[in-house]
Amino acid sequence: MTVEAPRVGVITFPGSLDDRDALRAVDLMGGVGVPLWHADHDLHEVDAVVLPGGFSYGDYLRCGAIAGHAPILDEVKAFADRGGPVLGICNGFQILCESGLLPGALIRNRSLRFVCRDVYLRVETSATPVTAEMTVGEVVEIPVKHGEGQFVARAEDLRRIEDDGLVVFRYCDADGVTGDEHNPNGSTDHIAGVRNAAGNVVGLMPHPEHAVDPDVGPTGGQPLFASLFARALAGAGA
Amino acid sequence: MRCTFEVLVTLKAGLADPAGKAVETSLPAMGWTNVSGVHVGRHIQLDVEAPNEDDARAQVAEIAKQLLSNPVIEDFRILETQGSTERA
User: Fold this and answer.
1) Which residues of chain A make contact with B18, given a CB cutoff of 8 A?
2) For the purposes of burial, counting CB atoms within 10 Å of the CB of A139, is it exposed (0-12), middle (13-18) or buried (19 or more)?
3) Is A65 in the B-facing interface, judged by CB distances under 8 Å?
4) What digits encode the pLDDT tens for the residues A153-176?
5) A62, B72: Cβ pair inside 8 Å?
6) Hey, which CATH number is domain A7-237, 3.40.50.720, 3.40.50.11740, 3.40.50.880, 3.40.718.10?
7) What is the value of pTM for the model shown?
């Protein structure tokens, strides 16, 4: 029996540093990682697109600001408009916010400290490509590592984000209970990840690509990739 | 003509400004116990080639809106350019 493997593109920007890990995670999970280049206008017919973590353009101006106008973003926007699954991780989340594909913004951690540790995330909706195979309330353990991950939004946007169910993940404890002590960066309403109105574009600060290999830590990233693969193979965006 | 502009980008009022707070917190140890309301922003200078200064200023406003600032969290001001310079 042969099972079709989804082609998942991972965009490398100048200063990306988790692109290799993202490609490796895709391969480990049984997909086909396809390297994409920021200056190209070609997504190489992938089934899903990942914007990886790192420090694109040295975080100059604002995190993700310059990458948010990179040539390949035209293609990412067109792909997203067609319903294609797009996942932004950490700096990739910042890029999606800066490009207008996702609501809100990410500012310096409230603690002023870079934070690098494993956190728990509670799934808030299964109406996204990365949570489609998960259940609401499910808790996964995934690492964060960032200095500017505090999610904020204008009051009217925040209302829309909450009312329309655009929150995908919240920081919590192992039992799924939220609290300031479990929120690594001071994000509003403990928001760790959001989606767009259509649901096919998702961004989160934690790193699922660092959480697929049981040899090196928690494996909370596995169900996200499994969901993404299932959705990608279902032909969204094709 | 070529016009020089300076754009000042600041965090919106009411938003947490961790960088400003960090600077403010370091001041008492240096002897300044009378300082509050410290905010850190960003300063950008650009030269724009345009038919006239109004046109150049409008372009700078657009650049500031689209790239230099993030309207979700920041405001911007275009500073008076001390004699936008006309060069041959």
Assistant:
1) 107-110, 112
2) middle
3) yes
4) 999 999 999 999 999 999 999 999
5) no
6) 3.40.50.880
7) 0.91
